[in-house]
Amino acid sequence: MDKVSNVRVGPLPNDSPYMKPFRLYFKQNGKEKNWDLVKAHDSVAIITLNKTRNKLVVVKQFRPAVYYGQICDYLNSVGSEVDSEKVIEMFPPKNAITMELCAGIVDKDISLVEIAREELIEECGYDVPVNRIEEVIRFRSGVGTTGSLQVMYYCEVTDDDKINGAGGGVDDELIDVHELSIEEAKEMLKQGTEHTSPPGFLFGILWFLTNKAQNL
Amino acid sequence: MDKVSNVRVGPLPNDSPYMKPFRLYFKQNGKEKNWDLVKAHDSVAIITLNKTRNKLVVVKQFRPAVYYGQICDYLNSVGSEVDSEKVIEMFPPKNAITMELCAGIVDKDISLVEIAREELIEECGYDVPVNRIEEVIRFRSGVGTTGSLQVMYYCEVTDDDKINGAGGGVDDELIDVHELSIEEAKEMLKQGTEHTSPPGFLFGILWFLTNKAQNL
C-alpha cells in the first residue's frame, strides 16, 4: 500500500469529476462578500465493532491529500526542480497512511443507510442488513471548504457476517482492514498524540468508548 | 449575521489566494494514479472553558460552504436561472450558521500556540499567556481533499481575562461568541442529532466532557 513513487504535481484539469472549485458571491449585512469553495460529495461513515472479538474494525489507506499536506512546504521550497525519489526518501509515504472509519461517498440514488451497508461490504467484507446499522449523528465536514454532510452510523458485526474474499475496496482502491482493541483505542486518544486520521474518526472512536464500550 | 442576500455562483478565479486546486500524480504498487486536491492552510482550534461560569466558549458564524452544501442540489436543478431571493426563501441562511471551536489558520511565522493565543483574543476577546494553553491532539482534516494539519488545544479562561471590545473576529469577519453550559453540551451530542458543526468541534466537546468536565 505504501509502495509509492513518481510523485509530481500538475494543474487541475477543467473536467475533474472529483474536484469542482468555484466562488460563491453573496451580500451579508449589506456588504458584498465572496467565498471560494469546492463541491464535494456527502458521505457516510460507520463505527464498526466486531463482537466476535470485541474489536473495532477500521480501515487503513494511503491518502494522497495527507501526503501532499506533509510535502507541500518542501515542494514549494524547491519550485519546479522536484526530484521524486528525494521526496519519497525525505517523506516516507507510509507516514501518510491514515486510520479511518469504514466510509464512502454518496454517489448513488439509494438511501444513506444502504450506502453505509454497501461500504461495509466493499471496504471491510461484512454483510449486514440495514436494520442492524444505527444512526449516531450528522454533521458538516470541511465547513470552510466543502460544507458537505457526513452521516455517522454504528454497527456491530460478527465473523459470521463475513463474506469470503470481500473487503479491501473496489476498483483501484487499496484498503487494509485493521482491528483495534478497546485498550488500543483508548491509548490512541491520549492527550498529546498526533494522528493522520481525520477528526470524524477521533470523534467516532471516542463516541464508541463513551456510549458502547462500558457494556463489553 | 444571517442577513444574507444576492447569492450567486461563479468560476474560481485563477488567482484565488484561498483555494489552490491541482492534481497530484503518483505510482502506487506499480500502477499510475492521481488524486485531485486543494491546498489549504494548517489550523489551530481551542476548546475554551470560562471558569467564572463553567461554560464552554464557542463561536457562531455564517459559513458559505455549509450554505452551498445545503443549496447545491437545488442550484443544479434550476441551472443558470437562479433567483437569489427564491433561494434565500427556500433555504434560510440562518440554517448555515455553524457552532465551532475558536479556531484560525496558520498564516503567520509564529508558533502554533501563539496563533491559538491570538485567535482567542480576536474571536473571543480573552487574552491569556501561552502557558495556560495546553495541547490536546493533532490530526489531519479533509483527508480526501486538503490533508491539512489541525492542532487542538484546551484553555481555561475567566472573565478577568476579557479585553474590553475584543472578540467577534477581525476585518470583515462576523463572529458571535456564545456560551454553552455543560448540560447543553451533553444534550447536543445525543444520538440522532444533526449539526452544522464540523467533526472537530464534536470531538472537542466530547473530549472536554470526558476529560475535564467531571471535576467541575
CATH architecture classification name of chain A? Alpha-Beta Complex
Strands of chain A, count: 11
Major pleated sheet of chain A: 7 strands, mixed
Shape of chain A: globular
Count of discrete alpha- or pi-helical segments spanning 4 or more residues of chain A? 5
Structural class of chain A: alpha+beta
Q: Briefly note the CATH topology name of chain A.
A: Nucleoside Triphosphate Pyrophosphohydrolase
Task: Please indicate the count of domains of chain A.
Answer: 1
Largest interface summary: A-B, 86 and 86 residues
Q: What's the CATH first level of chain A?
A: Alpha Beta
Assembly context of the chains: homodimer
Q: Provide the helix percentage of chain A.
A: 25-40%
Task: Sketch the topology of chain A as an H/E string, one letter per element.
Answer: EEEEEHHEEHEEEHEH
Rounded to the nearest angstrom, the radius of gyration of chain A is: 19 Å
The average pLDDT of chain A is 92
Distance between the termini of chain A: 33 Å
β-sheet strand percentage of chain A: 35-45%
Low-confidence segments of chain A, given as residue ranges, are none
Give the helices and strands, then pairings.
The structure is a homodimer of 216-residue chains.
Chain A (H helix, E strand, L loop, with lengths): L3 E8 L8 E9 L2 E9 L3 E8 L4 E8 L1 H15 L5 H7 L6 E4 L1 E4 L6 H13 L8 E9 L6 E10 L18 E5 L1 H7 L4 E2 L4 H13 L5
